[in-house]
Every structure is written in C-alpha cells, then in structure tokens.
Design goal:
Blueprint lengths: L1 H18 L2 H13 L14 H17 L5 H24 L5 H34 L4 H21 L1 H33 L1
Helix pairs in contact: 1-2, 1-4, 1-5, 1-6, 1-7, 2-3, 2-6, 4-5, 5-6, 5-7, 6-7
C-alpha cells in the first residue's frame, strides 16, 4: 500500500512537471521541509534551504518567461526534455519503499511518461493558440498551465491517490483528443483520396 501512495505522489508530481518544470519541485521542497513528503536518501537535498531558494527563483523565472510572446515557444522546445527528466526525478525521489531497479523503472516509465504526455499536450495547446489567435491567447494558455501545475502538485502532495486519479483523467482526455484528431485526419484523407 505504501508503494501505491508513493507512486501516486510521484506520478502526480511528474504530470505537473509537464505543465511547469519547477513548480512541483518547489512544492515538494516545501512539503518535505514541513514533513508531508519523505524523500529517498539521495534526494534529501530537495528539501534543503538552498534547494528551496533555487526552486523558488527558477519557478518565478519560468512562470514569467512563459508570458513573453516569443520566449514561450522557445521554452516549449527546451522544457520538453527537461519535463521528462524532471518527471523521472520526481517519481524516483518519492518512491522509497521499492528496491532501486523497480524505483528507477517506475520512475522512467510512469514518471517520465506522465510528464511527456502532459508536456506534449501543452506544446500542442500553445501551437493551437498561436494558429487561432496569432499568439494573443498564449497568456491565457500559460495561466491555465500554471494553475494546472500548482493544483496537480498540491493535490498529489496532500492526497496522493486523488492526484493519481486527476492524472488518470488528464491522460484519458489527452488520449481521447489524440484519437479524435487521428480519426479526423483519416476521414479527411479518405475523402480526398
């Protein structure tokens, strides 16, 4: 049961890193210092004062940068691999009851996968915003992503199973949209061919 809670926490934080890379680290650092989250031995540094300050500064810079019209698209290209790495580290840091092989396997597959799925969706949403609004809608997209990262991180820390349910719902919505997009593409191809 402990592993289920740890994995739920890790996957929730990892998915949140797909919205914003540093928000989950900041909230996890705060939660660790407050005693809500137990970090694995090699990851205890995440709860240090230096890490807390670093994550706070990085979060502020990341959040503000996403409101700069041309910089948000550049950040998407940089944060895609960073979100996957963050997802792996976030999950590995909280899965403490599994042996290292399982911890890292779960971290790579579940944590990295959740972060990648959410990040891909945010990149697509920002691209759609650029296409349909000429970029004028990007601040709204950025705000939604920030709120999503904060809420998902907080839910995962306070109620890990609820956070995992939110991630599952989010992934199902993503899968549904991808499936609909593929179906529309096939229909257009069939009609044109």
């Amino acid at each position: 049961m402990q592993l289920l809670f740890e994995l739920s926490l890790g996957i929730g934080l990892s998915a949140a890193s797909g919205f914003r890379v540093f928000v989950p680290f900041l909230l996890m650092s705060i939660a660790s210092r407050a005693g809500f989250v137990h970090l694995g031995g090699h990851f205890a540094w995440i709860g240090s004062e230096a890490a807390l300050i670093t994550f706070a500064v990085a979060t502020i810079v990341e959040v503000l940068a996403y409101y700069v019209p041309w910089l948000d698209h550049l950040l998407d290209s940089l944060t895609t691999p960073a979100a996957v790495v963050a997802g792996v580290l976030l999950t590995a840091s909280v899965v403490t009851s599994a042996d290292p092989l399982w911890r890292w396997t779960l971290a790579i597959v579940a944590g990295g996968g959740a972060a990648a799925a959410v990040q891909a969706t945010t990149v697509g949403g920002r691209g759609a915003s650029l296409l349909f609004t000429g970029g004028l809608g990007n601040p709204l997209v950025s705000t939604i992503e920030l709120v999503g990262s904060v809420l998902l991180s907080a839910a995962s820390i306070l109620l890990p199973l609820a956070g995992a349910v939110l991630v599952l719902i989010l992934l199902l919505v993503i899968a549904s949209r991808v499936r609909k997009r593929r179906l529309r593409s096939r229909l257009r191809t069939a009609e044109g061919g």
